[in-house]
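User: My collaborator sent over this chain with a note saying "see what the structure looks like." That's all I know about it. Can you take a look?
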Amino acid sequence: MVLVRQMEVEVEGKEFDVFKYVSLCTLDIICETAMGVSLNAQTNADCNFPDAANRLLELLAIRAVTFWLHPDIIFKYSQLAKEQNQCIKYLHDVINNVIRKKKAALTKNEESQKNEDGPRKKIFLDLLMELTQDGTKFKDEELRDQVNTLIIAGNDTNANVSSFVMLMLASFPDIQEKVYQEQLNIYGPTNIENVLLKEEDLQRMEYLERVIKETMRLFPVLPFLVRKVTEDLDIGSYTLPKGSTVMVEIIKLHRMEEYWPSPEKFDPDRFSPEEVAKRHPYCYAPFSAGPRNCLGIKYAMMATKALLSTVLRNYRLIKDNAVPVFDIQLKANFILKPVESITLRIERRNRKL
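Assistant: Without extra context I'll predict from the sequence alone. Here is the result:
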């Protein structure tokens, strides 16, 4: 509900950049659910974590495609290196603060980790702090690296997907209305704006899940995958030799008419059980696929559903001049992002009961 309150200033106003609100919300979510620490990023005006993480990814992408910056001896004297180091220092400071807060909470009152039924379930950071390697616990620097990976991966990706979904819902009001009606069916018309989400509620949001999956078909988290060929691979007209590197274009795969008729059409019903059963399982891979699939798929879907459900029960999303799906310009900063910021308007829900 913090996100809803923060967005109130935009009600009945002009189009605004939705990502700046969503990214702070997803940062709070990942810190509270996986770290057990309240960062209060949404209400802290000095929190620039999403901006720093996003800029760091941009800098890494720029270096990756600028061959003369590959050697460290050259890169370290560049302006990009200076900015990169500033971003890394800021991110490390935030993560170190999260770890300090967690350690302080555990040291101050271990009993607070229990409830009436006994010890609570341990979350990611609890387990990480207990984990040992060769009988030695992780050092603070090692903890920071693990936490840093999880927060950046769990924050930026979820924020990006949620923002794209909100753009699609604003661009297709009929689909947004179907999602809202599903919310009414789950919670009823009374006090729907302020209900407390439960896990079983998320499982019932089947149409919202289809909308999220269709959005990720058009705007996958990763634009491409890179894999090493471990043995000679015959793909028909060609044989990929062992040791070669292969790039799989997920965004192209997701827009192939062979698997997705009228691929430019936004159609959540592509992900009905009947339609899914007709397709090859690997023609859809927004989080990669196979043994190296993303470990956070279920978490990401739950977090995205919870965020979107809360927003849609309170606000109607509006896009004044919706752009055709295939005309939305994209860029790859390791994560697929829009060239132009995602903007939309919001109005309060006015339900007629």
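A starting point for your reply to your collaborator: The two ends are 23 Å apart (CA to CA).
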